Amino acid sequence: MMIEVLKSKLHCVTVTEANLNYMGSITIDEDLMDAANLIAGEKVQIVNNNNGERFDTYIIKGDRGTGCVCLNGAAARKVQVGDVVIIIAYALMEFEEAKKFVPTVVFPKKGNLL
Fold this sequence. Notes:
It catalyses: L-aspartate + H(+) = beta-alanine + CO2. This protein has two helices and eight strands, in the order βββαββββαβ. The chain is mainly beta. It has an eight-stranded mixed β-sheet. The mean pLDDT is 97.
């Protein structure tokens, strides 16, 4: 049996930009991506702590060291610059593997820096 479990989480990052005129996705500082074991194109769930919105999108690499967390396209309507969001990625794995799996959880500092 396969189950879906938490793989990676960026906990409480601040939205630095919202770009409505982009095709879609979330742009994340590549340093944050590396720290959380996330890759470009990966599906993520975004949870907005300020307004309760929950939605899915995919990742685009942002410039390293910038702290960039930019929601693009339609997702830009679900956030405002300054909102605090949680970025979550899940993985499918066998039940026994999941029991032993340890997710990567990152708690960035002010400015979304590590």
